[in-house]
Design a protein that fits this description.
149 residues, alpha+beta, six-stranded mixed β-sheet
């Protein structure tokens, strides 16, 4: 498989997410895929439960790929996500608010299947939109904080 083939598979996974079809995502995974999230390895079953829970909370989720890079057996994507908060999430009852968050994803492929996956998720915009943090909170090390010192 080429880097272009792997990039195509990643974009197919995004399209499946945007249709709410988790099977279209997991179809690209190797049975023994290893997920790295929140500084730990997440079992495959837990990752699927997280995805199902996410679709329950945000049934109209929309992933917008801002950039995608493919080289050798790896593909990295920078994604902005928008959705409407229609179900429980992080112990928050549905608000019907439109929310946004950002994610960086990296995938390693062998024989056309994802064998390893890393994600880094920035929920800060969503937490502000759900009033879980103040609108002035931007996170650690931002330019705004550096200037105010």
């Amino acid at each position: 498989m080429t880097a272009a083939d792997n990039k195509k598979r990643c974009l197919e996974m995004v399209d499946a997410w945007n249709r709410g079809e988790l099977g279209g995502v997991t179809a690209h995974w190797s049975p023994d895929v290893v997920h790295h999230s929140e500084e730990r390895i997440v079992p495959n079953e837990e990752m699927v439960l997280r995805m199902e829970s996410g679709l329950t909370a945000f049934p109209d989720v929309r992933l917008d790929v801002r950039s995608v890079l493919a080289e050798d057996d790896r593909v990295s994507m920078r994604i902005s996500v928008t959705a409407t908060h229609k179900g429980p999430f992080m112990d928050i009852a549905p608000t019907n608010r439109t929310v946004t968050w950002h994610t960086a994803e990296e995938f390693r492929f062998v024989d056309g299947k994802v064998v390893e996956h890393w994600d880094v998720i920035n929920y800060m915009p969503m937490l502000r939109e759900l009033d879980m943090v103040g609108s002035d909170v931007r996170g650690w090390g931002t330019a705004e904080q550096q200037v105010s010192r």
